[in-house]
Structure formats: structure tokens, C-alpha cells
Amino acid sequence: MRWVKVLAVIAVLFGAFCSAAPAGAIEQELYPGEKELHEAALKEGALYSYDTGPTWANWQGLFDAFKQRYGIEVTWNDLGSGATVVRLEKENNNPQADTAYYFMPFGALAKEKGVTEGFKPVNFDKIPDLLKDPEGHWFSIHKGTVVFVVNKNYVKETPKGWKDLLDPKYSKNVVYLDPRTAGIGYAIVIATSYAMGGDLDNMDPGIDYLAQLQKVGNVRMIEKTTEYDKFIKGEIPIWITYDWNAYRAKYIAGLGDAVDIVIPEEGTITSPYAISMVKGAPHPNAAKLWLNFIMSGEGQKIFAKGFVRPILTDVELPSEVVDKFLPASDYERAMDVDWVKAQQVQDKAAELWGSKVLGD
Amino acid sequence: MRRNIFLYLLLLPLFLVLLLFLAWPMVLVLWESFFVEGKPSLSNYMSMFTSKLYRESLRTSITLSLTTTVIGTLCGIPLSYALYRSGGRLKALMLSITPVPLTFSGLVVGFAFIILLGASGFITLLLSKAFDINPLEFSSFLFTWKGLVVAYLYFLIPRMILTMISAWSKADWSLIEAAASLGASRWMTLHKVLLPMLWPAVLAGSSLLFAVSMGAFGTAFALTGTGVKILPLVIYTHVSEVSVDIGRADALAIILALVTTVLILIYERAFAARR
User: Fold this and answer.
1) What is the percent of chain A where pLDDT is above 90?
2) For residue A21, what pLDDT band results from cuts at 50, 70 and 90?
3) Are A48 and A101 in contact (CB under 8 A)?
4) Most buried of A4, B166, B234, B268 (most Cβ within 10 A)?
């Protein structure tokens, strides 16, 4: 029997060796031309991906898989969508980035500033028309839905919707991100606007609602960077954020039954996140390889493993994830928005939020 | 003459570093603050007058910094004296520990206070066990400007101590003895002899605390997020994500630097006269 074990060990080691070997390790192409593109990308040897912070939307999982498949390390930064566009503009004469990822409205802005390159990755046709630029200057790669994440150690009665949050029993409970500094914060302004009877032309109802939430003293703080860690640490009773953060806290960080996830009864919105190839990218083939990988079934599945909704609806979700998502009937309350228009009014909305919610 | 040239050569690297990392960025910030969408304009500066949020943020920044400066100075002076008078190993140990808070990043300081005083913080839980208080309500002050006063003092008091300790060491104690032997009362000795000796260090130290408080960003960012109305956080909101407006951020940064400098100059002028 011993030789069986020895063989097994050898087989495992051999397997590990194969998967670790970088170049030429592609056995089966994910799409036609992958091998050729890979060889060209290997000659470039590097990839600079702007604004893909590893803890956001399971980017770390994509970095690891990309490195494993292609042997190319992804170099990233975490600037924030707006800052990314500003940076690309400043570097326009001497581009440093290969790809740039942002809250979708910023894709349109980046194109307008002339810092993007048209590129249609695999499965481009399957992305809904409203969620991509027709020439591929930007295209959405995943989505997130605005939900409440509730820590039941503090909250005895889980709120069902936006109006419930105004109840005095949630004094100093609610935390959300700043609409001036985060796409999710702006998504919350839009979500509350629709929920309170407004729309993109009239966001006053949403901003008035958030101002009232502030005024009754139910807002604990306005966050920017460390909210996930604070939630895990037990500092946040009710957190308004994207669903993947909620599932991650509940199932990956293991808070389990202590966490309730709520899709507000008055409705909410789903936000797409997009990526672009940068004009004059220093490693164009690596950039294409990366974008193709993200849009391949494999790449899309890695988002799903982190509970992030892939943009492709025909991707088979991993079974360990699929039964943990809230029922589809709940997700019916999450609507899509005209994001191109949303981009045009966001400066005004952010300023209005600053003056009405914080100003008084 | 030759010696002078040699000295200048020694100073050259420092000069270059200051030029490259202090003067040049300041020039760029100043330059860009006068542009709106590529056209020359003063409107970035005018926004300070039109925006209630900016005005309040400047006011809160000043209130916060004055509060921390006064408390930090009043705590730092006796502490530094006690440290100066202590001796042996204890003194050596304390002197090596005192600068440690200055080496931590704001993120660390912010989280340290959350771990102590946050909703599930050590002290909060202890207090809520002992008394009938609601941990959420109790800890909520931490995420306001008052919480920042507490957190800032953690790295301001050591600064005051370090500035003062050298003043105590350099003080000429024979003058105190002389005053006493000439029949001066304790109050008079303090007022006429000791304070004038220490005064330059007190001025320098408290000015430093004020400047650091006005400009501190990391601790506030980690601890309170962006909801507290202080100018460094408002500037940040204009360099990230939705409301990016670099010109506006530049103008606010210039205003912050100007206000801080002018207030310190007034303060030092007004009180230096006492000497």
C-alpha cells in the first residue's frame, strides 16, 4: 500500500508544479487567441490596474487566479473612482496605467476626457446595452445592490425599510458612506430618492430623508475606508452598503446568525461597476488579457465566489454561494438606473448632500 | 569664505529636499487653486464665503485645535516637569517611551481608540457593566469632534513634553535660588524668574500643537470617517471619488495653511512681548 501513497504524493506535487508553472501552461483556451495574447503579454511582463483595491469586490481572488493562469503579477492601487479619472487625465501624455476600474458613471466621464481606449473583450455582446459603451471604452463587469446589514447583537428588531430607520430606537445606529467620496454613498442618495418618491431629476426627497436621519440622531457616523473592519469588530449596528459586503461579513468572516441582510421594502438600486482599457497603455496585450479574463466565465465566477454579482447572467454561480443569496423575489425590489444621466447630476447631488445633511 | 562654501554644500541636500517636497508642491497647489476648468478664476476662494459647510468646517477646525492646544499645553507642562525631576531608570524609560505615540500612523491611533472607547470597546464594556449606560450612546461622542480632542491629545501631549523637557534641563536653577535668597515670594519667583525662562519653549510647543491639530488628517479619517466638519476632511472629499474638484481642494488647503500660519504669528507676537 505504501507505493500508492508515494504515487499520490508525487501526483500532488506534480499537479502543484504544473499549476505553478507560469508560461505556456494554458492547456485549454478560454477563448480563441488566448495563447497568442498570453505570449505577447508575457513579453510585456507587467500589468498596472488602477483602483482595484484587493478587499473590494473580491479583486484579490482575481489577482491570484490571473497570476496562477498567466504568471503575471497585477500591480494595483486604490484611488477611488473620481481620483482615478483625474490621475489618468494628468498622465495622459505619459500613461502609467493599463486598465482603470470605477463606479460605472465614471467610465463615461473617462471616455469624455479622452483617456480610454475602445476594446471589446470576450462576452462583450452579452453585457446589457445600457451598461457599456458601444465601442468598448468602458463596460460593466459586476454589480452590487444597496442593502442594510444589521448586527443583531445591538439591534433587537431588524428594520424592514428606509422609513423604519427613522425610528428613535435606532438612535446612533446607522452608518453609511459619504456620497461626496464614494460611489456607494451616491448610490444610497439615488436609492433613497427613488424610495421616497423622487428620481434622478429630483433627488430632494432622498437628500431630505438623509438629512432627517441625521437630524433625529440615528446616524452614528459617515464612513469612508474602514467600515468593513468596523462592522466586523462590532462597531456598527446598521450598515447601509453593497450586498457583497453583507454576505462577506455573514458567511466569509463568519458572523453568521448575528447578521441580518435586508433589501429595503420601499425599494433600492443596483449599481454597476465598470472597467476600461487606458489609452496608450504601456502593456496593451497584458491589459487585453486581463480584461478578457475578467469577462470570461472563469473570471466572472471568481466575482461570484466573493458574493459579487457578475455582469453575465448566464454564468453558473458556485453552489456554495447560490443558496446563500437572498431570494430573487427580494432582489426584484432593486431597480436599475440610467447611470449616464446619474453621472451628469452627481456633482450637484453630492454638494447638496454636503450642505443639507452636514451643513445644518 | 571657503568654510562658508563648505557649509553651504553640506546644507545643499536639505535645501534640495525642501525645494522638491515642500516648496514645489506648494507652488503647484497655489497655482492650481486659481483655475476652474482650465480658466483663471477666484471662485475656488470665493466658495469659502458662499459655502456654509466650508465656513463651519474652518470654525470647527479652529475650535478643535484651540481646545487640544490648551489642554495639551496644560497637561504637558507639569508632566514634563515631573519627568525632568524624576531620575534613574524610570526617567530613561519614560523618555524613550514618550516619543512612541508620534511614530504611529493615524490609522493605528484611530483604531486604538475604537478598541478602547468604541461601542464594543474595552472601557465602554467595562462601564456598561458597572453602570447602566447604553454602549452605543456612550461611545457615539468618539465619532464627533470631541472624540477627536481625546484622540489628538494622545499624540499632542508627548510633543509638548518633548519640547518642554529640554527647556527644564536648560533652565538656570541658580537664578531661582538667588530669587529665593533675596526674599522673593514663590509667586514672584514663578512669575518673574521661572516663567520667562520657560516661556519660549511654551510658546514654541503650543504653536506646534496648534499647527499639528489644524493639519492632522489620518486619525480623524480612520476614527470618524468624513462626517466630522473639519477642513482637512473637507479637502479630502474633493480629491476622492464623486465630488473631485482639485482646484477647490487646493484653495481650501491654501486657506488652511494661511489661517494656521497667521493665527500662530498673532499668538507668538502677542505673547512674546511678555518676555
Assistant:
1) 72
2) very low
3) no
4) B234
- Residues with Cβ within 8 Å of A158's Cβ and at least 6 positions away in sequence, in order, are A150, A152, A260, A262
Put simply, the answer to whether B136 touches A235 (Cβ < 8 Å) is: no
Task: Name the band, by pLDDT with cuts 50, 70 and 90, for residue B274.
Answer: low
Contact B120 A230 (CB under 8 A): no
Go through the domains of chain A in sequence order and give each one's CATH number.
32-142+272-320 (3.40.190.10), 144-271+327-358 (3.40.190.10)
Three-state SS for A21?
A: coil
Going B213 to B218 to B220 to B226, the CA torsion angle's sign is positive
* Distances in whole angstroms, Cα of residue B80 to Cα of each of A32, B90, B158, B190: 73, 13, 9, 16
The domain made up of B41-272 is a member of CATH 1.10.3720.10: yes
**A312, three cell numbers:** 453575465
Rounded Cα gap, residues B100 and B80, in angstroms: 16
For residue A19, the model assigns a pLDDT of 46
pLDDT at res. A2: 54
Sign of CA dihedral A188, A192, A198, A199: positive
Q: What is the pLDDT of residues B99-145, one digit of tens each?
A: 999 999 988 999 999 999 999 999 999 998 899 888 898 999 999 99
Strand boundaries in B106-204, DSSP class E: none
Residue among A173, A220, A358 whose CB faces B229 most closely: A358
Q: Do B241 and A233 touch (CB under 8 A)?
A: no
How far is residue A175 CA from its own chain's centroid?
A: 19
ipTM for the whole predicted complex goes beyond 0.90: no
**Chain A residues with beta carbon closer than 8 angstroms to that of B107:** 226
Chain A residues close to B120, C-beta within 8 Å: 233-235
User: Which residues in chain A are contacts of B242 at CB distance < 8 A?
Assistant: 81-82, 179-183, 185-186, 346-347, 350
Nearest residue on chain A to B239, judged by CA atoms?
Answer: A83
The yes-or-no verdict on residue A10 having pLDDT over 80 is no
β-pairing verdict for A259-262 and A139-151: antiparallel
Q: Minimal Cα distance from A153: which residue of B?
A: B120
* Domain locations along chain B: 1-32, 41-272
CA distance A241 to A188: 8
